[in-house]
Amino acid sequence: AQSVTQPDIHITVSEGASLELRCNYSYGATPYLFWYVQSPGQGLQLLLKYFSGDTLVQGIKGFEAEFKRSQSSFNLRKPSVHWSDAAEYFCAVGAPDSSYKLIFGSGTRLLVRP
Amino acid sequence: EPEVTQTPSHQVTQMGQEVILRCVPISNHLYFYWYRQILGQKVEFLVSFYNNEISEKSEIFDDQFSVERPDGSNFTLKIRSTKLEDSAMYFCASSDRRLAEAFFGQGTRLTVV
User: Fold this and answer.
1) What are the residue ranges of helices labelled H in chain A?
2) Phi then psi for A61, rounded to 5 degrees?
């Protein structure tokens, strides 16, 4: 069965600093991978997704993520964080050959220092 | 931009009562989902629905839960006899293909007292 680990519960960065949020997955083949963002009291918004092809994917709001098969990782990055990026970020994995569901990680809460 | 709409945004119900959570998925989507998020916890899959039937459900989705697409636009989640532990944010989502980008609604916060 697939699983997702987000090892950092909280991360605090200064505005303008770079950001990397970690995500590791467990799945026997190449999964579908997603990053979602949830602002307080809001729903989930898709930042980016990886299905196949180029392992570096670009998303909305200046985010990107890199799929590394050898490390079973799909880390989210942003070169310069804005105060409005403060939110909770969820990595999710789907099993394209066997399932309809997404398995979510436990989330990383991003705090941005002025 | 098309969006998934959920109503109500917040519902308070007494333990043992039935609740129906409503969702209007994006109009050309074919796959529909319910997820829930207990406060402070991860988002959990409940059920997926395709071609007018359940395609997959989780262990959480027991006999107290049911889903329905009563017409061409609505997608509902019914909890027959609510328990305190059903208190959570419930998210509806839809996609045009299996495991394609799922668009989530804003959620319904269910509080069981």
Assistant:
1) none
2) 60, 25
Instruction: Provide the residue type at B77 as one letter.
Output: L
**Chain-chain contact of A44 with B104 (C-beta, under 8 angstroms):** yes
Q: Tell me the pLDDT tens digit for each residue of A71-107.
A: 999 999 999 999 999 999 999 998 877 778 899 999 9
Smallest CA-to-CA distance from A74 within A45, A96, A47, A110 is with: A47
Q: Do B107 and A32 touch (CB under 8 A)?
A: no
Nearest to B84, CA basis, from B39, B22, B51 = B39
Residue whose structure tokens are 């109500």? B8
Structural contact between residues B20 and B76, judged by C-beta atoms closer than 8 angstroms: yes
The 10 Å Cβ neighbour count of residue A34 is 27
AA letter at A12? T
Q: What is the DSSP letter of A38?
A: E
CA-based nearest residue in chain B for residue A35 = B101
